[in-house]
TrEMBL record:
Compositionally biased intervals (Low complexity): 71-83
InterPro entries for this protein: AK/P_DHK_N_sf (IPR036784), BCDHK/PDK_N (IPR018955), BCKD/PDK (IPR039028), HATPase_C_sf (IPR036890), HATPase_dom (IPR003594), His_kinase_dom (IPR005467), Sig_transdc_His_kin-like_C (IPR004358)
Entry's Gene Ontology molecular function annotations: ATP binding; pyruvate dehydrogenase (acetyl-transferring) kinase activity
Residues covered by region (Disordered): 67-91
Organism: Cyclotella atomus
Gene3D superfamilies xref list: Alpha-ketoacid/pyruvate dehydrogenase kinase, N-terminal domain (1.20.140.20), Histidine kinase-like ATPase, C-terminal domain (3.30.565.10)
Protein name as annotated: Protein-serine/threonine kinase
Residues annotated as domain Histidine kinase: 379-514
The organism's place on the tree of life at top rank: Eukaryota
EC numbers: 2.7.11.-
Keywords for the protein's UniProt record, in alphabetical order: ATP-binding, Kinase, Mitochondrion, Nucleotide-binding, Transferase
Subcellular location: Mitochondrion matrix
């Protein structure tokens, strides 16, 4: 008999991802972003899987690895004396020829994709033997090859952190350079003040990483370098937390400009006072039919940007989380025993809290299927997806049937089998469905039925409110397209089927094996 659990969605408080799969140290937001990239690595919207990264190795330098036990006690003086310090690129103007050449140089390099399995194996130290081929033994005849690693250890060793940091020192400038160029070239959106601010933010982070020296040759210098690099990435991770809302603000500005009939811009100093326009060309009489939600080129850019942002934050978040004390069943931000059932329960609690705050009540949710199943995944990603789907279903159900009605339950089915390639979660509601003419728009950024004043208020904030239960039940309109990007990042997908006048079925596909590479934008 199929297991069945009934959950009352009457909230008892704000829940967090807790239990065996709660990693409190790093929350991977979007964060944090596409068109279909399935396990066959299909090409869509200029997105393709990049070169495979099956072993993270130390680039552009040699590492001396002594045979005696590793010590993490270092002195900064040894670090500075054993390496050549690169120029401080952060002192350069972002528009200088030197910076533009640096961006172009790194953007010509291919990005290196990673899979969920690769992230886990690297965090466990299973690829450290790849470093041994590059590194000479020390004078005692020991060398790196004599250091044994235990893949089942949950705590990252200093060498693992050094290996990951070295990869990020090489990879992150390449990824940032690709996105900086994309921000410079996207039609119309590039001229919005908020988007220019994001470009400056990415350029600052790009130059900060390049200004970090390559790790030195001495053992003490290596691990001091790693700690300094971690400090830089911690600042970047925090500083980029508001990028989602900043880009939403830029898209909001663009849509407002289009609907007014004039592409409004800003002065050369970046202050958008409305006194100047980027173009005096009035849109034609058919401009009222030009909808932002249907501008394919802009949305292709936003898909590329957000999938890349998810990737950057996953890599940085994984590295920073590896530096924290170990948590059971976790390798960085990845839980090896993620329970969809537990994640769905937390999402129900959070969605019900938001719905009850708005309407005074919330529909019941029934969960059936494989309630005992676990698989490796990033719990925060799955929670974001499920929270978005459940809060949409609750809102639709309450508004369709009326605040004082007896609501039909929302049904969640978790499907999995030993021969299945995917873990599948279905969310079904009877909230009246979606008109067929709006089905394409639900994947559009800033398409939302929320109160325009609420939406305008949200984009006025400079914080990542879209990822919080403190945000309105309906807000930026980014929820569905970004949820789909989260699902697609590790090879899954999100699809929606709707019957107008009845309800909507949402299907979340998550790859069980975790061996699909990132769909990195070109």
């Amino acid at each position: 008999m199929t297991p069945l659990l009934r959950l009352s969605s009457r909230p008892i408080g704000r829940s967090l991802l807790r239990g065996s799969c709660h990693r409190p140290h790093i929350v991977s937001s979007i964060c944090k972003s596409e068109d279909v990239m399935d396990t066959h690595q299909t090409f869509h919207n200029g997105i393709r899987p990049s070169s495979s990264f099956s072993s993270w190795t130390i680039h552009n330098s040699a590492v001396a690895c002594p045979s005696r036990p590793l010590s993490t006690t270092t002195s900064s003086s040894s670090s500075s004396s054993s390496t050549d310090q690169p120029p401080n690129y952060t002192l350069l103007s972002h528009d200088s020829p030197e910076v533009l050449e640096l961006i172009n140089h790194h953007a010509r390099k291919p990005q290196t994709s990673a899979s969920l399995q690769t992230l886990m194996k690297t965090g466990r130290g299973e690829f450290l033997h790849k470093m041994a081929k590059q590194m000479p033994s020390d004078s005692t005849g020991g060398g790196y090859a004599s250091v044994e690693m235990f893949p089942e250890e949950s705590e990252a060793t200093p060498l693992v952190l050094l290996q990951v940091a070295s990869f990020l020192r090489r990879e992150l400038p390449i990824r940032l350079a690709h996105r900086i160029q994309d921000l410079q070239r996207v039609p119309m959106l590039q001229d919005m003040a908020s988007v220019r601010q994001v470009k400056d933010l990415y350029t600052t982070s790009f130059l900060e990483i390049l200004s970090m020296s390559k790790h030195p040759l001495t053992r003490e210098g290596q691990f001091e370098w790693e700690r300094q690099f971690a400090s830089i990435l911690e600042n970047i991770y925090e500083r980029h937390g508001s990028v989602l809302v900043q880009m939403a603000r830029g898209a909001f500005e663009l849509r407002a400009a289009i609907r007014k009939g004039v592409l409004l811009g800003g002065d050369d100093d970046g202050c958008d006072d409305g006194a100047k326009t980027l173009s005096n060309v009035e849109l034609t009489s058919s401009r009222n039919s030009v909808e932002f939600e249907l501008m394919e080129s802009t949305h292709a850019f936003l898909d590329r940007f957000y999938i890349s942002r998810i990737g950057i934050r996953v890599l940085i978040g994984q590295y920073l989380s590896l530096r924290q004390p170990p948590v059971e069943n976790y390798v960085g931000i990845i839980c090896s025993k993620t329970s969809p059932y537990e994640i769905v329960k937390r999402a129900i609690d959070d969605a019900a809290f938001m719905c009850t705050r708005k309407y005074g009540d919330a529909p019941e949710v029934i969960i059936t299927g494989r309630l005992d199943m676990t698989f490796p995944y990033v719990p925060t990603h799955l929670h974001y997806i499920m929270l978005e789907l459940l809060k949409n279903s609750m809102r639709a159900t309450v508004e369709y049937h009326g605040v004082d009605a007896d609501y039909p339950p929302i049904k969640v089915v978790i499907a999995d089998g030993s021969d299945n390639e995917d873990v599948i979660v279905k969310v079904s509601d009877e909230g009246g469905g979606i008109p067929r003419s709006n089905m394409k728009r639900i994947w559009s950024y800033l398409f939302t039925t929320a109160d325009p004043e609420i939406q305008e208020g949200m984009v006025a904030l400079n914080e990542n409110v879209d990822h919080s239960i403190d945000s309105p039940l309906a807000g930026l309109g980014y929820g569905l397209p970004i949820s789909r990007s989260y699902a697609r990042y590790f090879g899954g997908d999100l699809s929606i089927m709707s019957m107008e006048g009845h309800g909507t079925d949402c299907f979340v596909y998550l790859t069980r094996l975790g061996n699909t590479r990132e769909p990195l934008p070109i």
